[in-house]
# Entry
Amino acid sequence: MTAALLLVAFACLASSLGRWLLSRSWAARSPRVAVIGWQALSTSVMASILLAAIALALPFLPLRFSLAYLMGAHTLTIVEHYETPLGSWPGVLGLAMVACLTAMLVTTTVRSVARTRRVRRSQLDALALIGRRDPGGFTVIEHEVPVAYCLPGSGEGTVVLSSAAIALLGDRERELVLGHERRHLRARHDLALAYSGALAKTFPWVPLFGDAHEQTAVLLEMAADDAAISPADRRSLAAAIVALGTGARPEAALAASDTAALARVRRLTSPAGSPVRGLGALAGTAVALVLALPLGLALAPAVEAATMDCCTVADVPAHD
Amino acid sequence: MRQLGQLEAMVMQHLWSVGNPVSVREMRETLTEERELAYTTVMTVMDNLHSKGLVTRQKHGKAYLYSPVSSRDEHTAAVLHEVLADSQDRTAALLHLVGKMDRDEAADLLSALSERVDDAP
# Structure
């Protein structure tokens, strides 16, 4: 019982504290670290909830024997430490919840993987017909709407520019845009986005996952911006983003304004912030801690049981 | 397989550029200007395009006449529509550099941008 309560409390605390911490201004200065932070936080909260449910059910799970063996404690002592005053009810509910959450996550993941493949496939098929391979290593489509995007994949991936985008951008700007897209492809940013997207889509009622997905998308764009530019290029890339973002796009009339792009432009036009010192080590420790804590909390009662058992054994000879 | 894909693209380019229905024989004559192709190869390619729903065909005498289902521009527009729809769903099928920007806000940023460019030595 204690373990489950501790884990739920940890999940709530970590998610509100983590969301606050990861939304601070340092995130835009070190977008890559912030993305890892969101991933670790999401994983940790998800693991806490699953472990809480499993802990409730532990008194009647076969797992209790292995745990007792592992801890060197009596199975009965272990069971005592995980029992709830309400009997096995919460455990049964917990197991049902684990099954349900897992099934939901698997279903959405399989669905989005299928959709992703379908979209990429149809894009590649269409590009084979209407696209023209540029010697610069990208694909050009003839269209009056300026667009730039990339199709990630197991191979190299494909960067696509429309003819209007090429006309709109200067040579240097085009190189920066290509650099940005290639960074997405090489670093497999799509996988990070697929992970946060699967959680956000499966559990839309968890604010943390929604925030994580939204922030990951923006931070990955910033990370690709950073990888594409040298300090002298910041303004050129900002100009390219504004040019493409405001280009004539009739079919986008209903699309919501890309506020994230404005944030990126503002970031690129203001002087480069110095990287936060010692952030790497700090973030590494925080990530390790936030990932290890759920398991630690889940095992805490078992550890307590083990120490109790070892004391009882030690007490026995004293009575003789 | 890769070669078939290239041939499909060449066939579609030709269908889009001529603007009237084309038979397999005529198509082969056009394509053969670039490289020698068997009649059956061209027929297979055009049959594939038909089963993919990219071209329609009408019987004319003994042969079929093929024409594209949608114009090249319509086809391109459909591709871009998908890009836009996906970047709003954010399914990670593709990564779009920038969505639609608000013109007024962008104008402010742009003026800030040009000021700094002017300031630069």
Summary: Chain A has one domain: 2-315. DSSP finds 13 helices and four strands in chain A. The longest strand of chain A covers residues 158-162. The two ends of chain A are 36 Å apart (CA to CA).
